[in-house]
């Protein structure tokens, strides 16, 4: 008979397989230029599919009494680092906005990927404490705690970036409003997920094992991590299906060009020619004039 945790894993397996198919479809639909958020969702789906498969093998095949430590270590690592593609998806979606975001915020969201990658490396390197296998506690190592703490810092930056961009909502078009609304709606669920990971990493401070990703309470993990990610990924994929695809964006661009009258096109073209000509003058004629002025001054003084 399948255990309670096994049923949760089977449901997760089915849901993330559906999410994986939708994410691949959305990535192809939006084209190579704007598929970064959807590729992150593909990675997250593959990560969760691998995690629940290992967990099923560890619990239903080997049984919790005969613990297979490599499988359990893999489950713990994949459970934690699944937040990395979720963070990157959110940052990439915020970066798709243009006018509300600004140049400075764009660089902040890009540089946010650096601590996320560092935290991923720390979590993979840390795994679970080798001394906790015997008691089935599977405690987080110091390296894992540092990686999860970096997640918390990145989440604070992400909330700040979302608040700043959302405050400029009056500059956004209809597509950007949809993106910002979806990200804002996902933040409470994201917060619960991050809190659960923090509770697991630092549960040794209060001696509880209820938040442990391996030996903890299945219901707590289901409510604070599994369902939260169901909702977040579902919101993001729903947004991806609503956003205009590559062909629609191309048609809109052609229509905008067609609506411009001849004088606008000519003025734009002439202004670009003027800017180019001015740059050429500045780079060639001006140095020659300075040199001629210097030579004339030398001749007059002599």
UniProtKB/TrEMBL annotation:
Transmembrane segments: 6-28, 74-95, 107-128, 148-171, 183-206, 218-241, 277-296
Domain DUF7702: start-end pairs: 3-243
A Pfam family matched in the record: DUF7702
UniProt keyword terms in alphabetical order: Membrane, Transmembrane, Transmembrane helix
InterPro entries: DUF7702
PANTHER family: INTEGRAL MEMBRANE PROTEIN (PTHR42109:SF2), UNPLACED GENOMIC SCAFFOLD UM_SCAF_CONTIG_1.265, WHOLE GENOME SHOTGUN SEQUENCE (PTHR42109)
Name of this protein: DUF7702 domain-containing protein
Organism: Melanomma pulvis-pyrius CBS 109.77
